[in-house]
Amino acid sequence: MLIYLADNQEWYNLVRKEVDSVANQHCSDTSLSLADRLMQVPIEAWESAFPTIDLVLKESMRLQLQGSAFRKNTSGRPIPLNKAGTEVIPADAYAAFAVADIHHNPEIYTDSESFDPARYLPDRAEDKKKQYGWIGWGVGRHPCLGMRFAKLENNVITAFWVACFEGAELVDVDGNKTVPPEVNKNFHSAHKPERKVLVKYRVRESGSKI
């Protein structure tokens, strides 16, 4: 998320504006640093008051979530995939689904390789074009049990980042400005970027007393 935000000043500013607004709503004492005012935000607000961060997370997951989902047919009988029953998942066989096939599908997502959190706003709702058009937290009977905590954790980390730092930009190991690493769709599990990317930043004056 921070890599994509450092590469997109428009969305970085939108997130920063949201964080400032939430801090002001829950603590009006401007003598305190922004980070200290965020400490006054209640848990309920951390879960519900950051829709912009939620959009950025969703788009970051779409771009980076690779690999294949597997399910084993343990029913003891073939499971039909269509009404005619001409295609089935045999008993004890595995069904596999490549996540990138849906998350990078240009028929669903406009300019599918670009970072664009606005694609999930109600006037576009690109992820709703097809059933299971976005499967970042899993779908069906067993979506991610840790989803709520993961979102909360992400909101806290991102909010305190923009509260404490500014001027973020992507650089390579030599300090030259660069772009986010390419997404390798051939990987089948989580992995670090093949090309190292660093985030250069400076302390935000109103953000922290460090």
What is the fold's blueprint, element by element?
Blueprint: H1 2-6, H2 9-26, H3 34-38, H4 43-48, H5 51-64, E1 68-72, E2 79-80, E3 88-89, E4 94-98, H6 100-103, H7 147-164, E5 165-171, E6 198-203
Antiparallel strand pairs: 1-4, 2-3, 5-6
Helix pairs in contact: 2-7
What does this structure look like?
The chain is α+β, with helices and mostly antiparallel strands and 210 residues long. The model has no long low-confidence stretch (mean pLDDT 91). Helix 2 crosses helix 7 (147-164). The protein has a domain at 2-65 and 143-203. The chain has helices at 2-6, 9-26, 34-38, 43-48, 51-64, 100-103, 147-164; strands at residues 68-72, 79-80, 88-89, 94-98, 165-171, 198-203.
Index terms:
210 residues, two-stranded antiparallel ribbon
Briefly summarize what is shown.
This protein is 33% helix and 13% strand. With 210 residues, the chain is of the alpha+beta class.
- Arithmetic mean of pLDDT: 91
In terms of per-residue confidence, which ranges show pLDDT below 50 for 5 or more consecutive residues?
Answer: none
Rough shape? globular
Termini gap: 24 Å
Number of helices: 7
> Beta-sheet strand percentage?
5-15%
Characterize the main sheet: 2 strands, antiparallel
Structural class: alpha+beta
Quick one: how many beta strands?
6
Tell me roughly what share of residues is in helical segments: 25-40%
What is the succession of H and E elements?
HHHHHEEEEHHEE
Enumerate the strands of the largest sheet in spatial order, edge to edge or round the barrel.
1-4
**Whole-angstrom Rg:** 21 Å
